[in-house]
Amino acid sequence: MVLRKVAAFFILDFLEELSYPLTFIWCCGRIFFRLVAFYYLGQLMGEATSPYLTVYGGSYFPFVMVGLALASFQDVALTSIARKIYFGMYSGTLEAMLVTPTSLPAIVFCSVLYQFFSALLEILLYLGFSVWIFKISLAQANLPATAVLLILALLAHLPLGIISAGFLLAFKRNDPVTAMLGQLSALLGGVYFPLQILPHWLGTVSLFLPFTHALEGLRQAVLNGWGLRQLSTQITILAAFAVVLLPLSLAVFAWAVRQAKRLGTLSQY
After folding, report:
1. Which residues make Cβ contacts (< 8 Å) with residue 189, sequence separation at least 6?
2. Structurally, how many domains does the chain consist of?
3. Residue 183 lies in a domain
4. Residue range(s) defining the domain that contains residue 135
5. What stretches in the chain show pLDDT beneath 50?
6. Residue 269: inside a domain, yes or no?
7. Would you give the DSSP letter of residue 56?
8. Is residue 208 within 8 Å of residue 119, measured between CB atoms?
9. Whether the Cβ atoms of residue 222 and residue 131 lie closer than 8 Å to each other
């Protein structure tokens, strides 16, 4: 029964995606042109950044490529649930869905299953284009460690997206905190530059972002081939974020649903 519900959510979103045949082409083009821009930016900088990039292999382009890939994955975690809630409120399907016997956590997680599948495909496109067109080598990548880090990164960031969806349900406005968190993660998490160049106090602030630890671990796993034992610090921190934030976010979302039902605003936006 559970698998049937999961499959139904996935197929529904897949069919919706098929109704926009240019989406995949647009996604490929966006990723390709972003990689081209950062590839030539790396060529322009030459060896200027190499002292900071030694621990990542010394080259800027692989460093930033992993950051761009994880940033796109994080964006899905932070925004996809709120987008699904908005569509459900706008189309009137959210209220009907919430009166079914399906549990609230199941609705939340199944609603974004296809979006995370698409995000995983985007990561593969980043890696594929980088290897095929820009000739970087990923032979040293540790695939099991990479998979574990991606799962933990998802579990650490998804609660923030659930809280954002709860904010949308309760106040009928997008959550500004989540949008700011995404920008802070890009700035302080090390997507575009090594954290070592930041002032010490900003480097300390970045340690409170799950994205910082996810990106550091992913870079070490992909670029240096680190295994799970070497990444134990990043894995422990991401797991702690997930354990603390997941129950909290589901409680916030359940409260927002109860409020919306009480006020009769599930179909209003």
Report:
1. 67, 71, 206, 209, 211, 212, 215
2. 1
3. yes
4. 2-263
5. none
6. no
7. G
8. no
9. no
